[in-house]
Write a structure and sequence with these properties.
CATH superfamily of the largest domain: NADH-ubiquinone oxidoreductase 51kDa subunit
Number of strands: 8
CATH architecture of the largest domain: 3-Layer(aba) Sandwich
Number of domains: 3
Radius of gyration: 23 Å
Strand content: 5-15%
CATH class of the largest domain: Alpha Beta
Distance between the termini: 68 Å
CATH topology of the largest domain: Rossmann fold
């Protein structure tokens, strides 16, 4: 498509109808009857963004997403438009879009519900992004343990294809149909790392690749590839339909827009809350009905199990990338896990350590061996059988994993151990003499009473 073709004007920014601090956009259809169908999606303005995208050149689309300030929702928060712009000039060969739906980290719960309840937002986002990068074949890498979600995604792709929405406007020449392939992986946390995902998608064992080259240069099948998270791509249609100014009016100066915040644990109404960046944990807990009655907050994590632990003193930290990092943690995937005073930090960190040890791909020694050693020590401390010097040894092992592993999984495994010891060292030391089950009985933390 010619770059000098008249472009559609910026749409007038509609007012958000949500009360208070919530900004339902991707989640707006979740409670609509048959929300996953194309009919319901189009009835609520679906595919208006793609219609506008087809009036813009690829360069204009990339510039528009850059101007919006959209950042990747997979954890790192890298600017999406900037990532798209890293693709080299067209050489006549294929280029690909790969959507990372391998949602695996404990506490993270936004991409699977999005595909389940509003898959057409993802399909439309894939179409717009594919047009922007000159792609005519996109892939969605999904966890195979969620077959019902996989089937719903397949149905959404089929509906959009049969409706003719993906017939033309894609590829390097802008006149090709778009093919979307949904791929069900075998279920490995390591495949959430973009290069391990690409290896798995190509039929090999999911191991992270050495970078450079980066996927933008040599990704899927050694061709230029954009890898983005489900939520990132699902945000794109609203930006096209409602305008850059609308999107950039939410959030903070450097963390623009809105995102899905997943609250779990000891709150009265756990769930997903779509809100602008900069909202605080105190506000989100209030929206979730507060800490469960009769209890008080002990600790929480802002971005899943791989992020440093926060306490009550951080409740008013704005939940944007810069503010959370400035307070000593990471926003990550906004998997906000809440724990009250009945919870043993040692028990929680032990479960997280077991997860990371199990999910380590084994490619590098620090992660492969270090997570196994940490798991052994954490098991001793939880059972009250810790040895003299175990806490110092645990801290030393974690410090030698962090920053020394092949990919970020090693850092993710070390982080809860190091931050847990830093904030609750006395609980770890108590594990040398007293089991966690005695200090913090299981029943006290349970959300549901036993039927017996």
């Amino acid at each position: 498509m010619s770059a000098d073709k008249p472009t559609a004007p910026e749409p007038e920014a509609p007012a958000l109808s949500a009360p208070g601090r919530l900004t339902p956009v991707v989640t707006d259809l979740w409670d609509v009857e048959d929300s996953w169908t194309l009919a319901a999606y189009r009835e609520h303005g679906g595919y208006e963004g793609l219609a506008r995208a087809k009036t813009l050149s690829p360069d204009e689309l990339v510039a528009l997403v850059k101007d919006s300030g959209l950042r990747g929702r997979g954890g790192a928060g890298f600017p999406a438009g900037l990532k798209w712009s890293f693709l080299p000039p067209a050489d006549g060969g294929p280029r690909y879009l790969v959507v990372n739906a391998d949602e695996s980290e404990p506490g993270t719960c936004k991409d699977i519900p999005t595909i389940l309840s509003n898959p057409q937002a993802l399909v439309e986002g894939i179409a717009i992004t594919s047009r922007a990068i000159g792609c005519d074949h996109a892939f969605v890498y999904l966890r195979g343990e969620v077959p019902h979600v996989y089937r719903r995604l397949l149905h959404a792709v089929r509906e959009a294809t049969e409706a003719g929405l993906l017939d033309t406007g894609f590829g390097l020449d802008g006149d090709q149909p778009l093919r979307i392939t949904a791929h069900a992986g075998a279920g490995a946390y390591i495949c959430g790392e973009e290069t391990a995902l690409l290896d798995s998608l190509e039929g090999r064992r999911g191991h992270p690749r050495l970078k450079p080259p980066f996927p933008a240069v040599a990704g899927l099948y050694a061709r230029p590839t954009v890898v983005n998270n489900v939520e990132t791509i699902a945000q794109v249609p609203a930006i096209l339909a409602r305008g850059v100014q609308w999107y950039a009016s939410m959030g903070t100066e450097r963390s623009k827009g809105h995102g899905i915040f997943s609250l779990s644990g000891h709150v009265s109404r756990p769930g997903q809350f779509e809100a602008p960046f900069g909202i605080t944990m105190r506000e989100l807990i209030d929206l979730a009905g507060g800490i469960r009655p009769g209890h008080r907050l002990k600790f929480w994590v802002p971005g899943g199990s791989s992020t440093p632990i926060f306490g009550p003193e951080e409740l008013d930290v704005p939940l944007d990338y810069e503010s959370v990092a400035g307070a000593g943690s990471m926003l990550g995937t906004r998997a906000l896990q809440v724990f009250d005073e009945t919870v043993s930090v040692v028990r929680v960190v032990a479960r997280w350590t077991e997860f990371y040890q199990h999910e380590s791909c084994g490619k590098c020694t620090p992660c492969r061996e270090g997570t196994y050693w940490m798991r052994q020590i954490m098991a001793r401390l939880e059972q009250g059988r810790g040895l003299p010097g175990d806490v110092d040894k645990l801290e030393d092992i974690a410090s030698n994993i962090a920053g020394r592993s092949f990919c970020a999984l090693g850092d993710a495994a070390a982080t809860p151990v190091l931050s847990g010891i830093a904030r609750f060292r006395s609980e770890f030391e108590a594990g040398c003499t007293t089991p966690a089950r005695e200090l913090f009985p299981y029943a006290a933390s349970a959300l549901v009473e036993s039927a017996r």
